[in-house]
Amino acid sequence: MLTLVALCVALLLLLWWFCTATSSRQNKSKLSSTINGPKPWPVIGSLHLLGTHETPFQAFTALSKLYGDIFSINLGSSRCVVVNNLDLIREVLITKGSDFGGRPDFLRFHKLFGGDRNNSLALCDWSALQKTRRSIARTYCSPRFTSLQYDTVSQVGIDEMNVFIKELQKLPTEQPCDIKPVVLAACANMFTQYMCSTSFSYDDREFQKAVRFFDEIFWEINQGYAVDFLPWLLPIYKGHMEKISNWAKEIRQFILSRIIDKHRSTLDYNSPPRDFTDALLMHLEEDPNMNWEHIIFELEDFIGGHSAIGNLVMVTLASIVNHPEVGNRIQKEIDTVTRGTRLPNLFDKAAMPYTEATIWETLRKASSPIVPHVASCDTEIDGFTVEKGTLIFINNYELNLGEQYWVDPEEFRPERFLTASGNVVKPAHFIPFSTGKRTCIGQRLVQCFSFLIVTTLLQQYNLATNGVAKTKPGCVAVPPDCFKFILTPRTKDDH
């Protein structure tokens, strides 16, 4: 079988070479003639260069040392440009954001969203429809600190943390146990309660399955596959594509039957919306440009945000157990503020700057990639010609771990986000949620709910592992079945 595959690849390479050699000499792409970069191999382009590093963004950083802060690279049949410094990244995301509003046309993205990636807010091309969908969500996903929505977020979080603690108490102590399902269930319930006025038992099998599939998809989106750039490999990935499509279908059915149908039967169009779900359903009736699929996919998109928070929490906890002094300092901060008489809440954030700084430092070290952009027209970056359809990689790995931006960037130091007076400060080059019009609309919920889970867990337990909790560089996701933690309940003497 392997011999047959190798022979087929060799024949394809030869065919491609003979068919394109003459035309490429006569009609060179504007991209390759204007922006420097590695010379591509036939068929695969420069994909082989990415395989020499643990993450593609490490490879991009290494290539930038050879070709400069902006360089071109062919990945399979895709023309790509990589930008590696803050000024160039700002030009792409802010100054010329309207020129780079597209997203990669990966087959996997279509499979995850009912055959059309434009059903997803994060993976769609920019359009008037997507602008409308974001505007509906903004009130709920970006609550202001002084707003009633923020009060609601805080109360939802407090209520769920009481349930979360009871669920943690069911787990074995003093031995490695898998806490990720409980963390993810808590995150999911905070999202469904806040956005849908609905929560679920942690023992609900349908709920468990939906949470697991969301987590599988989050891990999936954070991986790269050869088929993204070599679509002719699709037959080899057929089983994988069917699997991720089925995950998405199961999730959609759960949301429809357990959330949306319930809302539709009780919705009062003459009253203010009770939550985000009501707002979506009401908008469906008012806006002729919106259809039923837009509604269910938008709700799926935002409920799915709980997976990002659950994974961020797991990576943060991994950082804490790998650096015990950080966990000890967070616990002292929690004990000082709550005095052990109550659970932490969102209004404690300002009094817990070190804890907040730890989450920022986790995001910096994890350096989760910004979703690539695509040029929606012929345009320029730094005076270089960029053709319509060119895929743009934003190398925030360099922003997060480059020596020109940070002192001792490989070390885990939450205090780098604190001023001398102890206030949280984020440098301009630190953009973990991207920037510009496609910045992550749910970033405030990410900050709120991750803070609650980390502080609640560390208030109640000391954490340890057998060995080191291993995470993947350039990725805020951890595998659905990942490292385990040893939970030891804290005593009064610990506080």
Automatic annotation (TrEMBL):
<dbReference type="GO" id="GO:0020037">
    <property type="term" value="F:heme binding"/>
</dbReference>
<comment type="similarity">
    <text>Belongs to the cytochrome P450 family.</text>
</comment>
<keyword id="KW-0349">Heme</keyword>
<protein>
    <recommendedName>
        <fullName>Cytochrome P450 307a1-like</fullName>
    </recommendedName>
</protein>
<keyword id="KW-0732">Signal</keyword>
<dbReference type="GO" id="GO:0005506">
    <property type="term" value="F:iron ion binding"/>
</dbReference>
<dbReference type="InterPro" id="IPR001128">
    <property type="entry name" value="Cyt_P450"/>
</dbReference>
<dbReference type="GO" id="GO:0004497">
    <property type="term" value="F:monooxygenase activity"/>
</dbReference>
<keyword id="KW-0479">Metal-binding</keyword>
<dbReference type="GO" id="GO:0016705">
    <property type="term" value="F:oxidoreductase activity, acting on paired donors, with incorporation or reduction of molecular oxygen"/>
</dbReference>
<dbReference type="InterPro" id="IPR002401">
    <property type="entry name" value="Cyt_P450_E_grp-I"/>
</dbReference>
<dbReference type="InterPro" id="IPR017972">
    <property type="entry name" value="Cyt_P450_CS"/>
</dbReference>
<comment type="function">
    <text>May be involved in the metabolism of insect hormones and in the breakdown of synthetic insecticides.</text>
</comment>
<dbReference type="Pfam" id="PF00067">
    <property type="entry name" value="p450"/>
</dbReference>
<keyword id="KW-0503">Monooxygenase</keyword>
<feature type="signal peptide">
    <location>
        <begin position="1"/>
        <end position="21"/>
    </location>
</feature>
<keyword id="KW-0472">Membrane</keyword>
<keyword id="KW-0560">Oxidoreductase</keyword>
<keyword id="KW-0408">Iron</keyword>
<dbReference type="GO" id="GO:0005789">
    <property type="term" value="C:endoplasmic reticulum membrane"/>
</dbReference>
<feature type="binding site" description="axial binding residue">
    <location>
        <position position="440"/>
    </location>
    <ligand>
        <name>heme</name>
    </ligand>
</feature>
<keyword id="KW-0492">Microsome</keyword>
<dbReference type="InterPro" id="IPR036396">
    <property type="entry name" value="Cyt_P450_sf"/>
</dbReference>
<keyword id="KW-0256">Endoplasmic reticulum</keyword>
